[in-house]
């Protein structure tokens, strides 16, 4: 029996597991992730050393729980959240806090960049507040001293691999946007045009290639793993798609964790408005990450005064209630949006409220609103590829909820298939490690051997017809409310006409207190 240490650094938690070569998780430990420091200017930062501390703590727990299995570890693979930049100097020290996937401070600068960059370059149109090029240009403009010392840019899982092995490396999937910006197109080079040196890119490895052996001198119990290989792996979405068995032509995937990610996998590259086309090493994905997902459920529970530490039980209780005949529409853009709109100024809305609506109606509206966004992405991807997805492989915490699975199947009109593993990211990381070790000839073989299906949800024709009507109204609501969202955000800026309302509310509260 072979054992690998698989880790999944997510947006809100860090999970580590000891996985055997049948795909079974033999021991597992989860730790809440460090909270990002978010501010009103759109900043969102995390100290990268906090992620290293989580890895060490998780390994301490695993070694205590299953000492014999920990000693049997043959390799390590870590997948992790992407669109998060860690800035290192020439000695490998972190220059500042990491900018997380939520950071929108570069929004205005991204607009100026797009106007200045060569429009013929295929990556120019995709430069926005979430693009690493815009983040780097912001750093160059706002923190020139830090930028002047920048020697290497890493993603979170790359930083952990670096701390384990001493080698700075990444993979072409996680670094796709920056590599695209670095690539020359008819003499145009976006990095150079933005004043960003290409030398900050680390070495590029395939996800199943070895970064290096674990170095000596690490804190216990990692010291006991010295010499064991660490495989490069990739971002958490790519690994989870592998863990769902969806890394196959014609399949769609939907990962619903803190945020929602949906895409369709094809053999040839295709492009669609607002979607990311990423080379997935022999296959191509068309889709990408949103800013919304299961986090909207946590928001709803907090709004209703429910226990958001027991999300599954609470949402089940809400969905079990009586629903009103007239449904609500929910636009799920609570933090702006990435795919497919790339607009940090989008805002959420509940449309159609009446006096009889209650918590159950709100719960269904939230789940259906996220599923409507799924359908927008799915329709654009399928139209570009020229074929319907055969099925949607559904994973992440939300996949445990059969009601949400059925809603997605009915609203998208495609079978939704939930894999047996409740941790597709961990299983995907383990598959990467076993493939790298030579246990399987390819990722395809490893998926075939280790991924099993738990449940399949077929679209119900009657509900699908009703949801077609709801989806049409959802799209009309988007079109009507997008301009209002942008005006609200602009008006609430420091010099905007609505800026004083928060201060006025504080003063009013003081009067009531007196």
Summarize the structure.
The protein has 514 residues and is of the alpha+beta class.
List keywords for this structure.
single chain; 514 residues; alpha+beta; seven-stranded mixed beta sheet; 22 strands
Q: Strand-residue fraction?
A: 15-25%
State the major sheet.
Answer: 7 strands, mixed
Q: What's the alpha carbon Rg, rounded to whole Å?
A: 23 Å
The count of β-strands is: 22
Q: Helical element count?
A: 17
Distance between the termini: 70 Å
Helix-strand category: alpha+beta
Uncertain runs with pLDDT below 50, 5 residues or more? none
Overall body shape:
globular
How do the strands of the widest beta sheet line up side by side?
16-17-15-14-20-21-22
Task: Give the proportion of residues in helices.
Answer: 25-40%
Mean pLDDT rating? 94
3D structure, described in words:
The protein is built from 17 helices and 22 strands. With 514 residues, the chain is α+β, with helices and mostly antiparallel strands. The mean pLDDT is 94. β16 and β17 form a beta hairpin. It is globular. The strands form 6 sheets. Strands 16-17-15-14-20-21-22 form a 7-stranded mixed beta sheet, sandwiched between helices. Strands 3-2-1-6-13-12 form a 6-stranded mixed beta sheet, with helices on both faces. α3 packs across α4 and α12 packs across α13.
Which helices and strands occur, and which strands form pairs?
Elements: E1 3-9, E2 13-20, E3 25-32, E4 37-38, E5 44-46, H1 48-65, H2 67-71, E6 73-80, E7 86-88, E8 98-99, H3 107-116, H4 132-142, H5 144-149, E9 152-154, H6 156-165, E10 169-170, H7 176-182, H8 190-193, E11 203-204, E12 210-213, E13 229-231, H9 236-244, E14 252-256, E15 260-266, E16 276-279, E17 284-289, H10 294-303, H11 311-319, E18 329-331, E19 349-351, H12 359-385, E20 392-395, H13 402-412, E21 416-419, H14 424-436, H15 443-450, E22 453-457, H16 461-491, H17 500-513
């Amino acid at each position: 029996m072979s054992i690998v240490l698989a880790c999944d650094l997510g947006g809100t938690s860090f999970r580590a597991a000891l996985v055997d070569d049948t795909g079974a998780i033999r021991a597992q430990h989860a730790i809440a992730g460090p909270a990002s420091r978010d501010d009103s200017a759109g900043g969102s930062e995390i100290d990268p050393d906090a992620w290293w501390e989580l890895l060490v703590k998780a390994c301490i727990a695993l070694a205590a729980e299953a000492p014999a299995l920990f000693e049997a570890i043959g390799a390590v693979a870590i997948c992790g959240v992407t669109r998060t930049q860690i800035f290192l100097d020439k000695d490998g020290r972190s220059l500042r806090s990491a900018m997380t996937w939520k950071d929108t401070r570069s929004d205005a600068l991204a607009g100026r960049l797009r106007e200045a960059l060569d429009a013929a370059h295929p990556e120019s149109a995709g430069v926005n507040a979430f693009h690493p090029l815009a983040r780097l240009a912001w750093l160059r403009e706002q923190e020139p001293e830090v930028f002047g010392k920048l020697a290497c840019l890493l993603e979170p899982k790359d930083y952990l691999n670096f701390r384990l092995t001493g080698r700075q490396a990444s993979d072409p999937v996680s670094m796709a946007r920056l590599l695209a910006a670095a690539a020359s197109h008819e003499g145009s080079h976006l990095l150079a045009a933005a004043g960003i040196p290409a030398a900050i890119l680390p070495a590029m490895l395939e996800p199943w290639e070895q970064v290096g052996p674990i170095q000596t001198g690490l804190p216990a119990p990692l010291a006991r793993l010295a010499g064991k290989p660490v495989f490069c792996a990739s971002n958490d979405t790519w690994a989870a798609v592998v863990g769902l068995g969806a890394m196959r032509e014609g399949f769609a995937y939907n990962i619903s964790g803190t945020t929602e990610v949906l895409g369709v996998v094809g053999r040839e590259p295709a492009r669609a408005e607002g979607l990311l086309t990423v080379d997935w090493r022999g296959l191509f994905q068309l889709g990408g990450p949103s800013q919304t997902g299961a986090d909207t459920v946590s928001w709803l529970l907090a709004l209703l005064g429910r226990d958001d530490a027991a999300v599954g039980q609470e949402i089940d209780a809400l969905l079990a209630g009586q629903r009103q005949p007239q449904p609500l529409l929910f636009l799920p853009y609570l933090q702006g949006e990435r795919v497919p709109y790339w607009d940090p100024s989008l805002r959420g809305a509940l449309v159609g409220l009446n006096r009889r609506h209650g918590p159950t109606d709100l719960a269904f509206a939230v789940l259906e609103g996220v599923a409507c966004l799924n359908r927008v992405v799915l329709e654009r991807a399928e139209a570009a590829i020229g074929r319907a997805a055969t099925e949607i492989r559904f994973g992440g915490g939300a996949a445990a909820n059969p009601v949400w699975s059925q809603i997605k199947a009915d609203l998208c009109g495609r079978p939704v298939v939930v894999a047996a593993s409740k941790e597709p990211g961990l299983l995907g990381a383990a598959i990467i490690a076993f493939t790298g070790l030579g246990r399987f000839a390819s990722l395809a073989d490893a998926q075939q051997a280790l991924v099993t299906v738990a449940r399949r949800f077929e679209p119900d024709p009657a509900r699908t017809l009703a949801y077609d009507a709801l989806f049409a109204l959802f799209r009309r609501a988007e079109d009507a409310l997008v301009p209002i969202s942008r005006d609200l955000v602009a008006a609430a800026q420091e010099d905007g006409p609505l800026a004083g309302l928060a201060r006025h509310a504080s003063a009013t509260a003081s009067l009531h207190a007196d």
